[in-house]
Predict the structure.
Amino acid sequence: MRALLLAAGCGTRLRPLTNVMPKCLVPVKGKPLLEIWLDRLTRAGAGPFLVNTHYLAEQVERFVDASPFREQVTLVHEPELLGTAGTLVANLHFFQGREGMLIHADNYSLADLSAFMEAHRQRPEECVMTMMTFRTDRPSTCGIVELDGRGVVAGFYEKDPDFHGNLANGAVYILSSDFLEMIGRDLGSAKDFSTEVLGGLMGRIYTYETREVFLDVGTPEMYNRANTEA
C-alpha cells in the first residue's frame, strides 16, 4: 500500500528546536520522527512512499539519501505549502488508481499499522476511508470525532472549546480508490483536509482506535512527554 507522508510543516510551536531542523526530523528517543514512520510502515508491508518537503528541505533530502529507505522514498518539494488536501490532490498520480495512505508524519505513534489496514479491509461498504483515532487528554486542541454504533464518524469537531468527548482524529488515513477519484474530480480546489474534506463525508468514514502511544509532538510540552513518558 502506497503512502503519502505530509512532512513539510515549519513546526513553529516547537521553536527554538525547529529553528535548526524541520519538525519531521526532530528525534524521539534518538530517532527522527520520519524514520520512525518509515520503519513502522515498512514493517507493516506498506510502500513505496511519497514525502513532501518545504521548510529546511535540504535536511530531509540528506536524511532520505543516507537512510535504508532511499529506494522506496520519492521527495516532492513545495516552494509554497499546498495544504494537507492540496498536497494530496497534486499527487494523486502517485497512487496509480489504487487505495493508499495519507499520514501527518509529525505525530509520534506506535500504533499497530497492520491492524489498521485490516480494519480498513473490514470497513462498512459505504465507507470510503478509514481514520485512525486515539484518546486524548487535551480534546480542545484536537479534532474530536463522534461515532455511531458501527464505528463510523457521525460528527466532527475541529479544535472546539466545548467538550464533545476525547476520541481524536489521528490524521492517519487509508483512502479508498473511489475516494481518491472523487477528491480529484469534485474537490480539486481544497487546501485543508480536515476542514474542507472530512466535513462532507459524515457517515462514510470508518475508524480504527489505537490503544498504543499516539502523541501530537507539536509543542515543547508534548515533545518532552514523548521522550520521557511514552
Notes: Residues 2-106+119-228 form a domain with the Spore Coat Polysaccharide Biosynthesis Protein SpsA; Chain A fold (CATH 3.90.550.10). The longest strand covers residues 167-175. Helices lie at 33-43, 57-65, 84-90, 113-121, 177-186, 193-196, 220-228.
